[in-house]
Amino acid sequence: MSAVPPSDARPFDLSHAGVPPADRLGAALSARRRECRVPALSAAVAHGGRVVWADAAGAARLGAGGEPAVPATTDTAFRIGSITKPLTAVAVLRLVVAGRLGLGDAVGRHLPDAPAPDATVAQLLTHTAGLPAEPPGPWWERGGAGTWDELVASGVAPVAEPGERFHYSNVGYAVLGRLVATVHGRDWDAVVRDEVTGPLGMDRTGRTPAGPAATGYAVHPHADAVLPEPVARYGAMGPAGEAWSTPGDLAVLGSWLVGAGAWAADDAVLPLAWRRRMTAPRVVVDEPGSPFTAAWGLGVSVHHPAAGRRTAGHGGSVPGFTATLRADPASTHVVAVCGSSTAGFGDAGFLTELLPPSPPAGPASPDAAAGDADLTGAWYWGPVPFVVSLVPGGRLELRAADGDGRRTVFAPAPGEPGAWVGVEGGYWWAERLRPVRSDGGSPVALDVGTFHLTRTPYDPGTEVPGGLDAAGWRPWAPA
């Protein structure tokens, strides 16, 4: 399966995908570029596993010395900074799936000269290895970085015990990139190209641009002036942030990550179960004075604002460039944006403009078996209303009707025909959901981790554990 070329994306019926009209998206892109004074801004939106819209605004290279400006197009590549990290993480997890590494392995077992050798592979992936954010020395993102041996000799030292706390670490991903290179016996970027971006059809993604590329600029905050930023070589730090890509390629990566469309059944790069492990929150990001709205999975960040959609993805910035990738597992909408300004484009509000509101539970998914549709609708846990819906991937979602209570997504339980197992969500994760059917085959109750849900509150026509008061429900008016 390969990426949909941006030139084929624009005619797609965006209303079918629940995406705002193309002219509105293009206008939002141009307005944001002007508002944030970004020389070039490019974006793409995907839904259901394919890119449905892509556009670019501004100049990939500003005119200078009498030369004309070069317009940005959807084929223009941008440096994506730390969005390189999920690519590195996938290469690591492929080794785990193949049995060549273990998530619980101390990295020093495979890489004896690694800083923090007692930290595990999982801790490095989740930024809990205790390593510093940056290596010793000058600003490597702008001035460049040296070899692995030079990084080790620099005296980089842990700032916390492994597993003690979350601390974002570029150094940790340099270690993971070295681990990939050591196990494979070739450079980490060659492994990523051959085993990750190549099979996914991300032909415009690599350690160096594969075609036309944007120039990155520092835009003066108080004057109409720009300064071209250097494109430094990152050496051993490359696995933390040296890749180039386009929003179209990144939208494919996001679609694959959340198993959208045909990607749900495509396990060629990494099984869907492992992609779900990547996007499962493992570590809370604790920012003093702020609520817990962000977490970290295996190589990706997970955002869940108090009033907003839950998304998985990554952001990236290096001098001259900023980028962001967010994917909504529930709706399969994905947005990717790349810009050519060190100061960025204020992505938090902009992403909302490019995506539709988070939809309520909708009609049955065409991916779900028709025989399971009779489980949908209202159910009651005692007197508390719940709703069952079919969601993409042939799964069931059981959620509190008020939207604020328990919610779990269930998948068919292996080896148990008719049963479901919780695969995403809170209280009922890993628990079984088993329909209780009448003689005619209709579901009259749900056994969910021993809890008894019925079509009406405490339906007396079912075997409610513990029985019901013989007099049944009776009138009562609260005082």
For the sheet with most strands, the description reads: 9 strands, antiparallel
Fourth-tier CATH superfamily name of the largest domain: DD-peptidase/beta-lactamase superfamily
Number of helices: 11
Provide the low-confidence segments as ranges: 1-13, 359-371
Fold blueprint:
Blueprint: H1 6-9, H2 22-36, E1 40-47, E2 50-61, E3 70-71, E4 78-79, H3 84-97, H4 121-125, H5 140-143, H6 148-153, H7 170-184, H8 188-197, E5 217-219, E6 226-228, E7 244-245, H9 247-257, H10 272-279, E8 283-284, E9 294-296, E10 301-303, E11 311-318, E12 321-327, E13 334-339, H11 347-354, E14 377-381, E15 384-391, E16 395-400, E17 407-412, E18 420-425, E19 432-437, E20 443-448, E21 451-454
Antiparallel strand pairs: 1-2, 1-13, 2-3, 4-7, 5-6, 8-9, 9-10, 10-11, 11-12, 12-13, 14-15, 14-21, 15-16, 16-17, 17-18, 18-19, 19-20, 20-21
Helix pairs in contact: 3-7, 3-8
Compose a concise summary of this entry.
The protein is of the alpha+beta class. The chain is built from eleven helices and 21 strands. Helix 3 crosses helix 7 (170-184) and helix 3 packs across helix 8 (188-197).
Describe the model.
By secondary structure, the chain is an alpha+beta fold. It folds into two domains: 6-85 and 182-354, Beta-lactamase, CATH 3.40.710.10; 370-454, Lipocalin, CATH 2.40.128. Helix content is 21%, strand content 23%. The chain is built from eleven helices and 21 strands. It has helices at residues 6-9, 22-36, 84-97, 121-125, 140-143, 148-153, 170-184, 188-197, 247-257, 272-279, 347-354; strands at residues 40-47, 50-61, 70-71, 78-79, 217-219, 226-228, 244-245, 283-284, 294-296, 301-303, 311-318, 321-327, 334-339, 377-381, 384-391, 395-400, 407-412, 420-425, 432-437, 443-448, 451-454. The strands form four sheets. Strands 3-2-1-13-12-11-10-9-8 form a nine-stranded antiparallel β-sheet, with helices on both faces. The protein has an eight-stranded antiparallel β-barrel with strand order 14-15-16-17-18-19-20-21. A two-stranded antiparallel ribbon has the order 4-7. Helix 3 (84-97) packs across helix 7 (170-184) and helix 3 (84-97) packs across helix 8 (188-197). The termini are far apart. 45% of the residues are buried.
